[in-house]
Amino acid sequence: MILLSLVLFRQKIKPHWWPISFAALAGSLVTYLDQSPLLYLSIICVLIISVWKFQPIPAVVAAISGYILSDIVSTGVNMIWELLPFTSFTDMDDDTAQQVIILLLIIGVKCGMLVGIRKLRLGFTFLTHYTRIPPTKENAGFYLFILVVILGIAYQDFYPESMLSALMPIQLLGFETALFVYVMLGKELSFQR
Q1: Sign of dihedral through CA atoms 146, 150, 151, 152?
Q2: What is the DSSP string of 70-87?
Q3: Going by C-beta distance under 8 Å and a sequence separation of 6 or more, which residues neighbour residue 165?
Q4: pLDDT tens for residues 45-65?
Q5: Do 127 and 35 touch, CB atoms closer than 8 A?
Q6: How far is CA 53 from each of CA 10, 47, 137, rounded to the nearest angstrom?
Q7: pLDDT under 70: residue ranges of the chain
Q8: E strand or H helix at 176, and its extent?
Q9: Which of 77, 84, 70 is nearest to 180 (CA)?
């Protein structure tokens, strides 16, 4: 999640391996103990603010963008696995081998996405120019994006028996994805002025 957040906004990673590794370890421990991604997102925000000197709101946007991209990949892999005739989503909880296979597939796809974004020089640079994002009508998309992601995290266990909502309700994930595209690509695609 941390690497997706940083690569997505084209931040330098190489000189900052120690803080990134420490934040990843702390975030993994917090997520394992607390089962809530909110603390992990807070750790990513503190990392981005302290190391890359982002202001708080752009740091939150970067952190939750990495989270959303991570969720989209995980949900996509789970959907494809569900379509295969191996097992159903409800039976996966009992099968540790399948959970490990799915986890390895998710990690592989995320690593492939990281390499692809970096090699193709994709990603956004506009957040580095924001010293702050004031709560104005023009920036409403940023704040709505943050709010919807937090709602998605809060309701992540709303449909626990559905593969589409394993990580977050699919309706909220779809809305977050649409907001992500609007906020990040709005000016480039002429959605915004």
Answers
A1: positive
A2: HHHHHHHHHHHHHHSTT-
A3: 158, 159
A4: 999 999 998 889 999 999 999
A5: no
A6: 14, 9, 25
A7: 35, 86-94, 128-130, 157-167, 187-193
A8: helix 170-185
A9: 70
Report residue 95 as tokens: 């099968």
- Whether 106 contacts 74, CB under 8 Å: yes
pLDDT tens, position by position, 60-101: 999 999 999 998 888 888 888 777 776 666 666 667 787 788
Neighbours of 101 (CB within 10 A): 14
From residue 136, how far is each of 132, 133, 143 by CA, in Å? 11, 8, 10
Give alpha helix (H) positions in 9-134. Answer: 17-34, 37-52, 56-83, 89-92, 96-119
The CA distance from 162 to 172, in Å, is 14
**How far, in Å, CA of 161 to CA of 33, rounded?**
22
The residue length of the chain stands at: 193
Distance of alpha carbon 187 from alpha carbon 145, whole angstroms: 16
Query: Three-class SS of residue 171?
Result: helix
* C-alpha–C-alpha distance, residues 118 and 120, integer Å: 6
- Token pair in block for residue 79: 């959907």
Q: Are 63 and 44 in contact (CB under 8 A)?
A: yes
Instruction: Specify the residue for token string 């959303």.
Output: 68
Quick count: other Cβ atoms within 10 Å of Cβ 169? 18
**77 Cβ contact list (under 8 Å, min separation 6):** 102, 105, 106, 109
